[in-house]
Amino acid sequence: MERNISLVSLLCFIIFNGCLVLEADAVKSQRSEKLKLIHRHSPELGHNPETTLGPPKNSEERLKQLVQSDKARLHAIKRRLGVVGKANDRVEFPFRSAADLGFGQYFVSLRMGTPAHTFTLLVDTGSCLTWLKCRYTCIDCSAAWYGRRFFSANESSSFKSIPCSSQECKTMDKASTLPNCPHPNAPCYYDYSYLDGLNVAGSYFNETVKFRFSNGRKKGLEMTMGCTDGLNNPKRFQEVDGILALGLDPLSFAVKAAHEFGGKFSFCLDNHWIVKSESSYLVFGKEDQVPNMQFTDLLTEESKMTSLYPIKVTGISINGTMLDIPSYVWDMTDKGAGGMIVDSGTTVTHLVEQAFDKVIAAFEPSLSMYNKTKGNLDYCFNAPPAEIFDESIIPRVAIHFEGGAKLEPAVDGYIFDDSKGVKCLGFVRVAWPEMNIMGNLLMQNHLWEFDLANKKVGFAPSKCMLD
Question: Which CDD domains has this protein been placed in (predicted)?
Answer without folding.
Answer: pepsin_A_like_plant
